[in-house]
Amino acid sequence: MTNARERSEAFAATLGLSVPILLAPMAGACPPSLSIAVAKAGGMGACGVLLMPPPEIAAWVAEFRAAGGKALQLNLWTPDPPPTRDAAAERRVRDFLAQWGPQVPETAGDATPPDFAAQFDAMLAARPTAISSIMGLYPPDYVRRMKAAGVKWFATATNVGEAALAAAAGADAIIAQGAEAGGHRGAFDRDAAERTATGLFALVPAIVDAVSIPVIAAGGISDARGLAAALTLGASAAMVGTGFLRSPEAKLSPAWSNALALAQPEDTQLTRAFSGRSGRSLSTAYVRAASAPDAPPPAPYPVQRGLTAAMRRHATEENDIARMQAWAGQASRLAPARPAGEIVDALWRGAREILR
Ligand SMILES: Cc1cc2nc3c(=O)[nH]c(=O)nc-3n(C[C@H](O)[C@H](O)[C@H](O)COP(=O)(O)O)c2cc1C
Question: What is the pTM of this model?
Answer without folding.
Answer: 0.98
